Amino acid sequence: MKARAFSYFRAGTIDEALAAHADAGDDARFIAGGQSLVPALALRLQAPRILIDINHIDELRSVRREGEWLRLGALTRHCEMLTEPLVAEFAPLLRAAAPFVAHPAIRNRGTLGGSVALADPASEFPAMVLALDAEIEIAGPSGRRCVKASDFFIDLFETALAPGELLVAIRVPLFRSNQRIAFDELARRRGDYALVGCGMIATLDRDRIADISIALFSVGNVPTRARSVEAVLVGSSLDAGRIAAAQAALSADLAPADSDDVPAAMRVHLARVLLGRLLGRLGEVR
Amino acid sequence: MSSAPTELDESDEAVRVRMVVNGRKVACDVAPRVTLVDCLRGQLELTGTHVGCEMGACGACLVQLDGRAVHACLMFAVQADGARIDTIEGLSESGVIADLQAEFHRRNALQCGFCTPGMLINAHELLSQVSRPSREAIRDALSGNFCRCTGYEAIVDAIAAVAEARAAAAQGRGDSSR
Amino acid sequence: MTAPLTSLDRPNSYIGRSVPRPNAKRLLAGRGRYVTDLRLPRMLHAAFLRSPHAHARIAGIDVEAARALAGVHLVATGADLARICTPWTGTLDHFKGMISEPQLPLPLDRVVWAGQAVVAVVAESRAIAEDALELIAVDYEELPAVVDLDAARAPDAPLVNPAASSNICFRAQLDSGGVDHAFAAAAHVIEEEFSFGRHTPVTLEPRAMVADYEPDSGMLTVHHATQTPYQFQDLYSRHYGIPEARVRVIAPDIGGSFGMKLHVYHEDMAVVGLSILLGRPVKYVADRIESFVSDIHARDHQVKARMAVDAQGKILAMDVHDATAIGAFSTYPRTSVVEGNQVIRLIGAPYDFKSYRATLEVVFQNKVQTSQYRAVGHPIACAVTERMVDLAAARVGVDPLAMRAGNVIPDDAYPTASPTGYRFEALSHEVCLRRLREIMSYDGLRAEQSELRQRGIYRGIGIATFVEITNPSPAFYGVGGARISSQDGATISLTPSGEVRCAISVTEQGQGTEAIVGQIVADQLGVAQEHVRVLTGDTEVTPHGGATWACRGAGIGGEAALQTARRLKANILEVAGLILQEQPGALDIVDGQVVSVANGQVRLPVAEIARIAYFRSDTLPPGTQAQLTVSHHFAPQGYPFAFTNGVQGCYLEVDIDTGFVKLLKHYVVEDCGRIINPMLVDEQLRGGVVQGLGAALFEECRYGETGQLLNGSLADYLVPMAMEMPDIIIDHVETPTADTILGAKGCGEAGTAAASACVLNAVNDALTPFGASVNAIPITPARVLKSLDRY
Fold first, then answer.
1. Do B33 and C715 touch (CB under 8 A)?
2. For chain A, what percent of residues have pLDDT higher than 70?
3. Which of A48, B66, C304, C331 is packed most tightly, with the most Cβ within 10 A?
4. Which chain A residues are within 8 Å of B31, Cβ to Cβ?
5. What's the pLDDT score for residue C2?
């Protein structure tokens, strides 16, 4: 398990990183936390000619409030999600998901931007970014652009990022006092990729759900919004009957494939159970 | 049959990496593809950091990078240029984990010892963040450290006992910083 | 049944004391020296190209580009190594009729499992060796593969070994007689089928070796992460034609073994050959991906069982059929049929019934070899037996603990024998069951379980009694022709400064062998343990012996140490008697001082005797030849095995909506005879239990339809981790064996033997209200949910 030879370039600025990528062409890879990329290199599943290290680009680091958004630099480490007060206050769904991301030492190194750019359908943060209707800031050879999370995740490990483009930051709408969140996942062991996971954020109007956004992970090729379920819930209160209706609606949102250890029907069942439990919790915290 | 050997890939040529390892400045020449753990174990002969899976799933290779526990198999040595690295050898020599080591020894919280350096690095980080973690919190903190020998209980016991002892000592000093 | 007091029980004895391991401090400081750490001058690194196919003919191999890569020193194929290494065959004579195909380090023309090493590259670094692997082209012609037990036994199955007439490796039958009659007369007949998935040991340090052949002296030194250096000394000598005295195998610190590192692996044999071909040290460390496809796997059994029970719940008979699929050949030199053999012989072993019949069928398939891994066969025998007992208890309407109490062999019935012919010297099932009831607060747990059920929380209690085979005599391997020793030897010296040095053939993998040997020697010689240095794991330094396998270190190695130390003590006292003008029998050694037995008066430091004997022998009476080094061997006699016993309990909760199982607490009552170091025994049990719990809930090598391992990485193969494992409460009963002075038996496999059986029973107990049952291990959420018909 030794990587194929590559050259290394440490970028000091976004422009340097983009230029290095442009010079190298398709054979370059950005490396941030590297917690998924390095094993892929060690297994020779990927073998770029040049690795462009973005860990030392200060512009990618900050967590700050920008108007109605919380802007999280791409290099925000998973562990910072647990300790950064702005995340706890303005993006509690990300805070809630963070302890489930792998293990402490992985969280010390892994980054939000790396996780979202990789778009592993079993990962927590891509799905939560989707649930939050976040916007993804991208820098590329032809300048900056912003992509809505709902347009970002395209297929298995495929995103709106074009070759040579760099994910710069994630912006999430500020959490408001009339909102509630819930997150949980079913993983065989602590820190494993979940058999199914789910996070949600609801806006309440007294005891009714004015708006709700629900995203699941480990249910298909991409992180998945449960739009049918959301439609069932908006305008209603969270009583047992409505939760059951929401669970019933879930199959319209999911189409997982059989895997060798988890049949598709079981995954849908687990997603329903998890959804029901989370909606129940959401109902309780009012 | 004997033709000239195929030349090594140019990108496999060594580059100079400077780090502060266990408090000492070191410089070593490694190819970019050499992981930090292979550099520590190879060039620097710090074999206390172990290799168990090379994909961040076992915790045997944990070291401190600028004070935080990371998998030395999940970064390349060249990425650590300019960084401060502390390994089990350095933490042992500085004495900062002496109480943990003594308690592990007293309770036999290790058998083959292969996971032990990683366990200690993680335990050290946990206790630097939480002064009296619950058993559940200790188990959670160790959730990425595989031990095939002990069944974990003695490790959890040892960490819990050190946490208690440190907290008691801090209380004795009137230290309320945590 | 607590042991009677003997000289081993005196108050200041090291025997029975929880002394921390002297060698553990080094490991805690990161100063272990594992084979993976080793670097020798001129050392090169090996890597192997592996077959992507489960079964294929090798039509051609093109290695020219790999050979041409800078930094590559050797590319070797099967033919290159076959010139210097003789083939091996994994059969033993006492397994009548078993067959297996001869093996070479690398295949000549056919691969038989996906992951089999095909070509070796030796280069200046592992990375360059892996670069070269990418340049090798192998032309494979795929052959039909046999990928599971059922496929192997199908009438028109493709043959794993085309030279054989079927895929059957071995068949065995046991029949005590009276089985059909017992079933015909039974009030209840319980039937169940079980399946046990494949799992694999996953030592944290992978397999590692540095082979160093020095052509001028013809000396081969192998630094080998193994638990059995003497076995490998013999094998390397015979298969490479090097005189035994010129083969040295050194086993330094080992990062876990559990049986995995005592088998012959193709790569390991190849690395020795590569070093011989190059005349340089060659290092090979299996990376984790390689480990999963080339370390032995274990289990992979399907068992059909029937149990006859009378109306009062007395077990009358059992009738079982065990089918197990090994790899494409049988492992060398211990074979792959031992596990199945132990399954059929251990089923029912704790219980008092006479009529037993069993059939064992061992078949080949195109997967990596299975062989002995911690608790060999016990977990299967135990799970089958204990689940059948629970089913019978339910049928009869008896509490599971009471069912066991009414059926175990009574503690006063020994010596006795099992229906399968195992001879039991003395076991303690009844007292163990009583202790378990206490430490579990069994009745309290039942009440809690019942109360929680009303609230929709489904907890389960599982019990499993077990019998473990330890201290094996030559009946295990020697009688079958294997050059695997069942005796152990020690050489103990009083050094010139009066310290003690003990070189012993049992080996250390972290279980504490060196610690307990030090305790025994210190205890017997009357010196402080810190003055006893124990050396293990080097065939050039330590006497030949069995080393570590089948729970023999304390029982056999410990007895060897004890007997050797007693002989040395007699020699020391003989010299002391000459110096002091006393009868040796009037003297003893306490705390490093020779004392008078009569009044305890200190007469002379032991160090003084050493000084005189080594440097002033002229002051001793003429004709005196002080013998302050003693070598002595101990081979077990009497019972062929020292059986141990115990019982485990498990308390868990099943989430009936998700199928997830949460382990709440685990309990063990164990009787391994005399306990030398209680802390180390407890830690053996805990570690063993957790390996069993991993097997019960998580661990399984899953294969695809074409025979590829699907989850062969540490991210995909689920080992038990800290968060999911329970605390484990342990209690002991001590019934020493009378076959030795020490009275110790083994304890290393007891934890693993019954843990998965306990979990199986507990999960089924939790599912009782739903009429659901699970009969497959591992017990995955998918299996639990399927049993509940939830998807």
1. no
2. 99
3. C331
4. 5
5. 46
pLDDT, residue A285, reads 60
| Count: domains in chain A | 3
Rounded to the nearest angstrom, the minimum Cα separation between A148 and chain B is: 31
What's the token pair of residue B139?
Answer: 């188990």
CB contact under 8 A, A106 and B141: no
> At C552, is the pLDDT very low, low, confident or very high (cuts 50, 70, 90)?
very high
Cross-chain CB nearest to A189 (options C130, C288, C724): C724
What secondary structure letter does DSSP report for C100?
-
CB contact under 8 A, C728 and B151: yes
Residue in C with minimal Cα distance to A269:
C791
Using a CB–CB cutoff of 8 Å, tell me whether A55 touches chain B: yes
CATH of domain C43-143+202-294: 3.90.1170.50
Q: C681, C519 in Cβ contact below 8 A?
A: no
Using a CB-CB cut-off of 8 Å, the residues of chain A touching C660 are 186, 188
| Chains contacting chain B through 3 or more C-beta pairs under 8 A | A, C
Using DSSP's 3-state secondary structure scheme, residue C247 falls into strand
Determine the distance in angstroms separating the CA of C679 from the nearest CA of chain B, rounded to an integer. Answer: 7
Predicted pLDDT at B10: 74
Q: Is the ipTM of this complex over 0.95?
A: yes
pLDDT, chain C, mean: 97
**CATH homologous superfamily for the domain B15-92:** Beta-grasp domain (3.10.20.30)
Q: Each residue of B30-63: pLDDT tens digit?
A: 999 999 999 999 999 999 999 999 999 999 999 9
The radius of gyration computed from the CA coordinates of chain A, to the nearest angstrom, equals 19
Class of domain C487-634: alpha beta
**Architecture of the structural domain at C298-474+638-787:** 2-Layer Sandwich (3.30)
pLDDT digits (tens, 9 = 90+) for A2-53: 999 999 999 999 999 999 999 998 899 999 999 999 999 999 999 999 999 9
For C748-758, write each residue's pLDDT tens digit.
999 999 999 99
**Rounded mean pLDDT, C99-110:** 98
All residues of chain C having their beta carbon less than 8 Å from the beta carbon of residue B149 are 256, 510-511, 687
C628 vs A82: CA distance, rounded Å: 65
Q: Residue B1: pLDDT above 50?
A: no
Average pLDDT score, chain A: 97
Give how far C267 is from chain B: nearest CA, Å. Answer: 19
Domain carrying residue A147: 58-171
3-state SS of chain B is CCCCCECCCHHHCCEEEEEEECCEEEEEEECCCCEHHHHHHCCCCCCCCCCCCCCCCCCCCEEEECCEEEEHHHCEHHHHCCCEEECHHHHHHHCCCHHHHHHHHHCCCCCCCCCHHHHHHHHHHHHHHCCCCCHHHHHHHCCCCCCCCCCCHHHHHHHHHHHHHHHHHHHHCCCCCC
| Residues of B in Cβ contact (< 8 Å) with A79 | 68
Task: Decide if pLDDT at B8 tops 70.
Answer: no
Report the SS3 class of residue C345: helix
Does residue A1 belong to any structural domain of this protein? no
Question: Which whole-number Å values give the CA distances from A284 to A181, A207, A213, A271, in the listed order?
Answer: 11, 11, 18, 20
Asked if A194 is an interface residue toward chain C (Cβ–Cβ < 8 A), one would say no
Lowest-confidence region among A220-224, C103-107, C636-640? C636-640
How far apart are the CA of A99 and the nearest CA of chain C, in angstroms? 13
Question: Which residues in chain B are closer than 8 Å to A106, comparing Cβ atoms?
Answer: 56, 71, 74, 144
Q: Is C131 on the interface with A (CB under 8 A)?
A: yes
Q: How far does the CA of residue A265 sit from the closest CA of chain C (Å)?
A: 6
Are the C-beta atoms of residues C557 and C519 closer than 8 Å to each other? no
Number of B:C CB contacts under 8 A? 193
pLDDT at C120 over 80: yes
Q: Is B42 on the interface with A (CB under 8 A)?
A: no
Q: Is B30 on the interface with A (CB under 8 A)?
A: no
CATH of B95-171, one of 1.10.150.120, 3.40.50.300, 1.20.1440.20, 3.30.160.70: 1.10.150.120
Whether A66 is covered by a domain: the verdict is yes
Whether B5 sits inside 8 A of C686 (CB atoms) is no
- A66 and A167 together in one domain: yes
